[in-house]
Amino acid sequence: MQVEGREFAGVVVDAPRDSEFRGNDRVWIRNRVACGSCKWCIGGADNLCATSLWFGVNTQGGYAEFVAVPVSAVVRLADNVPFSDAAATQLSFGTAVHSLIGRAGLRVGQTVLILGGASSVGTAAIQVASVVGMPMASATPGSASPVAGATGETCVSTPMAAIATAAARAS
User: Fold this and answer.
1) Where are the beta strands (DSSP E) in the chain?
2) Residues 55, 5: contact at Cβ < 8 Å?
């Protein structure tokens, strides 16, 4: 039976002797393992690898009691980071950084409009933009972002027609 769970963190039970990990080490697990040898992986776009192992999709996920994980997917977790935070941030923050910095090429001082600020990716994008020093506006129809206003953005929580107003306020 396939067990779900894309993003997870936990404690090492057993590890290969030649790895840097030992029993009881706190770790988080990368949600996928790319092959490393296809044209996408070699070209630096391993997120497009067609043969990736995706935890909870084509291999056992984090809801299982125990999961066998390649050492290449294991990352040490600081003692002060809760397991739930480590697990919840991978896709959201990875997508936010990739979208804002990688794809859009935004830099310090540029203004950004974040749509869907109450979503997990939207909330992560607000925090990333704040840390990088980007003035921003977020538009979230019908609800407010959990970090609304705390990071200095102009927050609009109204119908989508307000997006233009939010963008104008931020610039």
Assistant:
1) 8-11, 26-29, 32-33, 53-54, 74-76, 112-115, 136-139, 154-156
2) yes
Main-chain phi, psi angles of 23, to 5 degrees:
-55, 140
pLDDT digits (tens, 9 = 90+) for 63-81: 999 999 999 999 999 999 9
Token duo for residue 68: 């066998």
Residue 136, strand partner residues: 112
* 73 in Cβ contact with 30 (< 8 Å): yes
83-97 vs 120-132: helix crossing angle, rounded to 10:
70
Give pLDDT tens digits for 106-121: 888 888 888 877 788 8
Dist CA 159 CA 114 (whole Å) = 14
Q: For residue 95, what is the enclosing H or E element?
A: helix 83-97
CA-atom Rg of the chain in angstroms: 19
Report pTM.
Answer: 0.65
Q: Rounded distance, CA 60 to CA 122, Å? A: 28
- 11 close to 27: Cβ distance less than 8 angstroms: yes
- The answer for residues whose C-beta is within 8 angstroms of residue 115's C-beta and 6 or more apart is 122, 138, 139, 140, 163
